[in-house]
Design brief:
Layout: H1 3-33, H2 35-42, E1 48-55, H3 64-77, E2 84-91, E3 94-100, E4 105-111, E5 116-122, H4 126-135, H5 144-173, H6 178-198
Antiparallel strand pairs: 1-5, 2-3, 3-4, 4-5
Helix pairs in contact: 1-2, 1-4, 1-5
Length: 199
């Protein structure tokens, strides 16, 4: 078996591997690019449901690491599953904890002065589901599944680069199509550079 045969096989199976990921990124890019169209149609589902209220007496730390530790403690206190979460500080004595998955979102609002924490669930929204998949990545979250997702995203990125390289090799091997290939590369690269330099 020659290198060309191996390259074609690699290109074929890499394409099949990244197929669902490219489909997901392509579909989820639509609500990101056309938020003014999608968000109003999805706004009716933006209502939140109050799940519970708790009395809490905990000091809010000033550092990010301490905020994250407190956020995890508040989620445990509220019995909220915390596969992934982020912590925000609205004011010196107010903080929000946002726990999320692709299917559900829960927000904790902690008012230190009033010693009150509310737990609110958001209804499922397709826009948040799609954009959440598109934007999710990184290794800042704890747990096996969030880390595995980030590792697979890294593998997909490497697979796309290898898929491009194997495609270029196949294109170069077909002499009759080199001119059209150069035209496609020039148009794609030129349009990208125009936007990159002018926007």
């Amino acid at each position: 078996m020659t290198f060309s045969h191996v390259n074609r096989r690699v290109h074929l199976y890499l394409g099949l591997f990244i197929l669902p990921w490219l489909f997901m990124y392509g579909i989820s890019a639509l609500p990101l690019a056309h938020a003014s169209f999608f968000m109003p149609h999805d706004a009716a589902k933006n209502s939140r449901i109050l799940r519970a209220e708790h009395t809490v007496d905990m000091a809010v730390p000033n550092d990010d690491a301490g905020l994250r530790v407190l956020g995890a403690a508040l989620l445990d206190l509220a019995a909220v599953r915390r596969t992934s979460f982020d912590v925000y500080r609205e004011a010196p004595n107010r903080m929000n904890v946002y726990a999320y998955s692709f299917w559900s979102w829960t927000e904790l609002n902690y008012d230190v002065d009033r010693r009150r924490m509310t737990v609110e669930d958001s209804r499922f929204r397709w826009v948040l589901f799609l954009t959440g998949m598109h934007a999710r990545g990184g290794f800042q979250q704890e747990g096996v599944l969030p880390t595995a997702w980030s590792l697979v995203v890294d593998l997909v990125a490497l697979a796309i680069l290898l898929w491009i390289a194997s495609g270029l090799y196949m294109w170069w091997g077909v002499r009759g199509h080199r001119r059209w290939g150069w035209l496609a590369i020039a148009f794609g690269t030129g349009s990208f550079l125009v936007f990159a330099l002018r926007l």
